[in-house]
């Protein structure tokens, strides 16, 4: 542990403006208190509660307090544990994908497309595989939008084709071809057995196979449990996580395809 970390660890020498090393906050600054929840495949008994505390201890929570336990059927129990961790977070070592494009209004997006592309920009969206969670992709595409922002259908210069749920990869590639898609937007919400990763890899490989480099659309995936740093591994151009708004997506599309000069004009 460095001397800086040690100071922060003892909780009193972190200057108000110094946010490099931080610890969780519960009751008092830097007390390291966290709350976690999990389920164990055991009936709700005293022993089960002891098992939950044992797990919390092994996770480095010390002392750990069981603040909630509730049976889920006869053979599972849900727990909430509150307690102290000694770990520190070094903010300078945090790795995230920061927004590296300007956030534009719908009016600005329309103006760029109209002036620079001089045709409508075609967007094809779908929820692929067996995934039927369409609320996320609809939030991005439908006029109704989300979080006070209208979806991409509202943008006059975008032509949106929303294929809906449970679209197969071949169907998606075909639709992208038919619509001359500039961008393909795929949603994956279910992550059981890494379905979102497998489906995304299958999708990007199919586009690579079906279309020559330079002719394939911009590939974007989104969903609440993606790791936004995995673009290369998944073969896509951009990943959007939870809380994404349509404006961010429209701004990125315009940036990647037009302002940053990749468009098939
Ligand atoms: C609503 C819902 C359903 C509805 C879906 C209705 C519909 N038409 O979409 C119904 C009842 C059908 C359903 C069914 C199932 N569900 Co469900 N469902 C949910 C729930 C409660 C909310 C999801 C949601 O709508 N969120 C709101 C939207 C706006 O958020 P979002 O999807 O994250 O989207 C945002 C971002 O992620 C991003 N985004 C998303 N997609 C995209 C795409 C692009 C291109 C971009 C740029 C951005 C982007 O932008 C969006 C806006 O900010 C979640 C739990 C939860 N609270 O999240 C479970 C949940 C997703 N479901 C789950 C499960 C297990 C199922 C079922 C398997 C249950 C079952 N046993 O039958 C089935 C599967 C059906 C199927 N074949 O897919 C699990 C998934 C677990 C996992 N690890 O995968 C969850 C997490 C519940 C849980 N905790 O167990 N579900």
From TrEMBL:
Domain B12-binding: 120-264
An example Gene Ontology molecular-function term: cobalamin binding
Superkingdom of origin organism: Bacteria
Pfam entry (one): B12-binding
Stretches for region Disordered: 1-21
Protein name: Lysine 2,3-aminomutase
The species this protein was found in: Micromonospora globispora
